[in-house]
Amino acid sequence: MRLEGVEQFYGERIRILGPIDLEVREGEFLSLVGPSGCGKSTILRIVTGVLRPSAGTVRVGGRPLKGVNTRTAMVFQSFALFPWLTVIENVGVGLEARGLPPRERLKKADKYIALVGLSGYERAFPRELSRGMKQLVGLARALALEPELLCMDEPFSALDVLTARTIRDLVLDLWASPEVMTKSILLVTHSIEEAVAMSDRVVVLKANPGRIADEVDLRGLGRPRRPDLPQVRETVDRMYALLA
Ligand code: ADP
Ligand code: MG
C-alpha cells in the first residue's frame, strides 16, 4: 500500500499533514514515530480508508483506493470494544459487518480468540477483563478479518509495562506464525524503544504540518531483538537524536 502526495487540510487552509509519500511493503513491519499531533493517527485513518485525504492518492496493490480499505484492520489504543457484547461477539463484529454467516463467524472468532490466548473467556464482557485482555480482544478482532495489513494506533500505550511487553511479543509471534495470514504491520507508537524492538523499518515524522523527517532500516538488527544488544541500544540513541 502506498500514499502518494497525500495531504490533509483542516478547513480551507490549515494543512495538518503532508505532502506524504509512504509505502508499506508486503511482509514488512513498519512503524511510524513522531511527536504528538504530527498526524500519525490521521495517516492510519487515511490508509484504512475511513478518512479520504484532501489531496493525493492511496494505492492498494497499484489501484487507487475508493472508500474503506477492506484489506486492512485496526487496533486502537482505547480498545474500542462494545461493552454490551461478549468477547466472542466483539471479535465477530467486523466479520458480521463483512457479511460472513454466523457459523463461519463463530469459527473464525474462536480461532483468533485461541491464538491470542483468551480461550475460556468467550462469554465474558469487556468490563470483566483487565486492560491487557481487552487489548487482546481488540487484536483478535482485527486479525479475524485476516487483513493483509494490520494497523495499530499506539496499541500498548494504555497498558502497564509488563503487559505491554507480553502483548508486543505475542504480536511478533503471531506475525511470524503460519496460522496468521497477516504479514504486513503498520504500527504507530511514540516509543522509540518499541519501534526499534519490533520493526523492519521506522519512519520518523515531524509536526506542523506532519511530514516525513527520516527513515531508518532496522533489518540488519536481526530477530529476536534483544534490547540489551549494543547495536539495538545504538539505534535507539540514534533515533532519539533524530527526533530531538
Ligand atoms: P497524532 O496521532 O500524531 O498525535 P493526529 O493525526 O491525531 O496526530 O492529528 C494531527 C493534527 O491534526 C493535530 O494537530 C490535530 O490537532 C489535528 N486534527 C486532527 N483531527 C482534527 C479535526 N477533526 N479537526 C481539526 N484538527 C484536527
Ligand atoms: Mg494519534
Main sheet: strands, sense, barrel: 6 strands, mixed
CA-to-CA gap between the ends?
29 Å
- SSE pattern, N- to C-terminal: EEEHEEEHHHEHEHEEH
Q: Specify the CATH homologous superfamily of the domain at 77-146 and 159-182.
A: P-loop containing nucleotide triphosphate hydrolases
Q: How are the strands of the largest sheet arranged?
A: 6-7-8-3-9-10
Account of the protein in words:
- The chain has seven helices and ten strands.
- It has 244 residues and is an alpha/beta fold.
- The protein has a domain of 94 residues: Rossmann fold (3-Layer(aba) Sandwich).
- The strands form two sheets. It has a six-stranded mixed beta sheet, with helices on both faces.
- α2 packs parallel to α4.
- The chain is globular.
- The site of adenosine-5'-diphosphate (ADP) has 9 residues, from α1.
